[in-house]
# Entry
Amino acid sequence: MNASDSKNPLARTTFLHLSAQQWLGFILLGHLLLAFVYSLTTPPWEAHDEWAHYRYAAYIAENLALPDPGQRLTTEFTFDEASQPPLYYLLAAIPMFFVETADGYTPQVNPHINGENAQTGLNMAVHDPEIENFPWRGTILALHLGRFISIFISLLALLATYHILRYLSPERIEIALIGTAIQAFTPQFVFLSAVITNDILNILLSSLLLLISLRLIEEGPRPRLALYASLIAGLALLTKYLALAVAPLTAIAFLWGAWRHRRRQHTWRQAIISLSIFAAILIITAGSLLWRNFQLTGVWIPRDPVSQQSLIIGIQRGDLDLNWDLVPQALRNGFYTYWASFGWGNLSPDEWVYSIWTLVILIGVAGMILWLRTEQAARARRLVFLLLLFIIAAVSFPLLRETIHESPFLRGRYMLATLPIAVWGVTQGWAYLSGRFRRWTLGALVAWSAGLSIYLLFFLLMPAYAAPDTLDAPPEQPIPIHARFDDAVELISADIWPADEIHANQGLAVTLVWRVLARTNVPYSLKIQLEGAGKQPYGSLITYPGHGNAATNIWEPGIFQETYWLMVQPMQPIPASGRVLIAFFNPSAQPDYLPVFDSRGNPAGDSVRFGSLRISPDKNLPAPPLSPTPLATFGDTLLLTNAVLPPDEPQRPGGIFPVWLVWQALSPGSEDLTLSLQLLAPNDVWVAGADGAISNILLPQHWRKGDRLDTVRWFTLPNDIPPGRYKLIAALYHAQDLSRIPAVDAHGQPLPNNAYPLGEIVIH
# Structure
């Protein structure tokens, strides 16, 4: 490469017989296409605060005025953006001006979204294809036009990155091209390019500010550079208050450049003139914004007043009282979301993606350190200090905010202004270590970045918001149900796994096969619950069908299958027998359940229950010991360990008294096993009795060795029972054939009639 090539940012002699200009064009075109596909694929409002960002721009298009920074423009989601600086929204509003944005549309929020549980849905909003699909109209059209503005801004940001890398590695044009390509296809950058967010303009302006700062150091403070720097810094502060972190670095670059070129004639005079220009334009641009904020809200910066107040109080006390224990986790979250995080930060790739990124970066940093020691890196060594300051400022500002809020969720998009530095370090480091295989290695880095973005598009982003696949025929499941919820949907069949026993703190898989019959007027929530006796819940899940993507007011007729996981909670009583409950209800109009009809069309309440399984304690808990001295043993199934009758006082005819029996299981019992309490006259003639289940909590087929079973039975006396002493006995029998279970006493001797004498009842 000749000397002119190092000065020409679009040098013509590169590699593979293509000029740098052609390669750069291909990179920009590739990013444009990928960002466009991401924009079409990402449903409306499925980027962090996109509805709020959109409403800001739409307000400007509708009113031809800026909103009051103290007002709220949205109430649908948690956050509002009216307190943000206006520049990005002014740009996004330009195409919206030609569209009807005041069409009354508001997004339908998914109330069941839960960042910790993806099966409740990843979609923050319910998406109606009839409204959102092409051809777009009204609000949806305006949204996509605003997204196209973001894509255009991202192309300018890539050009800024290219020039930064050319400035840092002027001898190797492929470094600039490859680094720009890596940024162009980095998943997080592609995603931000495809949605409405002021972060993308902040990346562009911060990159330009970095480029100007580098030039100020190398070329010295000149009025022309000061003009550029002040305009860019002012525009950055008009875009996002986050620019306050990096804008002061321009002043450092001014002073540094003046010191480096202090022997040049008129250097200090130029520095003073340049700083004056910088300050004047910055006051006019950013100062006007701050003054407007103060006039309308009484504060200079109305954004996040809690953090500001906490910071001011901490500085006044001389103690910020920050929770430094959160910093490692916050930095980890920031690193992850820096490279790949979609949706509202609730859609991320598998761990292996971040592991590969970490390896790529660590090797790149090692190579960069070695390269900086070479003679070729003399210029870069001078500038690394500013780059490090830029990184520290860009990271510490949002990190400080999160620690003030006691939050470990540092968002990587806040730090993407450092992306040009990151891709330069990775590219230059790998290039140095690769030697003569440099082009193959750098090509692999681009392939990794682009391939990952394409992979995540098809295997993460698109499936996250896809409706469930429609099946030609219902798949066979072991539990036939055929219950209809009003005229909306039929639950054809189901399955649970494990089918027989589940332990606390384990997951229960519930598979449901649906036949959609019609849409409902409002979205009904699907309730899936594991419940025991008395409707005691042991785990539940509330969501929209299709894992949030098939709300009942938008789902399409057809058959689909879905599987959910319930985490079984260690509720009491436990162990217990459980069944799965399925119901549809309208949470905004309690109680409003869809009525259920059985397979014959008969009313069946408002829910469906199926399955029968044992709910056991946590596997890590020790099993209860068997009673050493049981009162009686019934077959090989049960021990009677305690019996409590009323105090020894007379009972009245027609009265009622409690009987409390404590059992311990030896093994599972038959489903028809029945307890019989019998009141006998002195000649063993039957007088009264009460038969029923041994336990209302745990069914016999779910018993396990060591289980404790409590029977509380209220025994009713006949109204005409004569006074006297009566004997109360307990026996177990099979309901199917009335055969009694053999019973022996504490010494192993057979009990008469296989019945245990509980005690005497006195009637007076």
